[in-house]
Write a structure and sequence with these properties.
Number of domains: 1
Strand order of the largest sheet: 1-2-3-5-4
CATH class: Alpha Beta
Pfam family, one: HATPase_c_2
Distance between the termini: 30 Å
Structural class: alpha+beta
CATH superfamily: Histidine kinase-like ATPase, C-terminal domain
GO molecular function, one term: ATP binding
Protein name: ATP-binding protein
CATH topology: Heat Shock Protein 90
Strand content: 15-25%
Shape: globular
Number of strands: 5
Domain Histidine kinase/HSP90-like ATPase: 33-127
Keywords: ATP-binding, Kinase, Nucleotide-binding, Serine/threonine-protein kinase, Transferase
Number of helices: 3
Radius of gyration: 15 Å
Helix content: 25-40%
Length: 157
């Protein structure tokens, strides 16, 4: 269910040795996939001894849950499988969720303190990433879908 390859895709961060790597998962676009992937990623990060405090790990898992939930709720009709990627090295942990829907959510472009009737989960993703000193964004895929990602510095960086 997971694989390891290459360097962490974050600009300016050289690959490191040890427990760092990139792992990819696929989940169906259904609600019950959310807790399953959250537990799988939590267990992976613990097993690989990712340099995260309990608070940073909680933030990472919160972001993951919000991104997968967003894909399940808004992209399931155009997505047979949601791709999840988690990677970390000595400096960063990066999460990305890929689905087949072309719509780029605007919530990541909005200010976290603005009031919106929808998209609060993605505002939470943005606020959590920025508060930790990281970033997040949306990238279109070659197949017409999108990749929503968040990168957070590991503790102590």
């Amino acid at each position: 269910m997971d694989s390891r390859s290459g360097a962490l895709p974050h600009p300016g961060v050289p690959p490191t040795t040890g427990h760092a790597g990139i792992w990819r998962f696929s989940v169906p676009p259904v609600e019950h996939a959310v807790p399953g992937i959250r537990h799988a990623v939590r267990d992976l990060l613990r097993r690989q001894q990712a340099p995260l405090t309990a608070d940073r790990l909680y933030g990472v898992l919160l972001i993951l849950s919000e991104l997968v939930t967003n894909s399940v709720r808004h992209a399931a009709l155009l997505t047979t499988e949601i791709g999840v990627e988690v990677g970390f090295d000595a400096h960063w942990v990066r999460l990305s969720v890929e689905d087949g829907h072309p719509y780029r959510p605007r919530a990541l472009e909005a200010a976290p303190d603005q009031q919106h009737t929808g998209g609060r989960g993605l505002l939470l993703v943005k606020a959590t990433a920025l508060e930790a000193g990281g970033d997040c964004g949306v990238t279109p895929t070659a197949t017409g879908g999108k990749l929503i990602w968040a990168a957070l510095p590991v503790d102590g960086f």
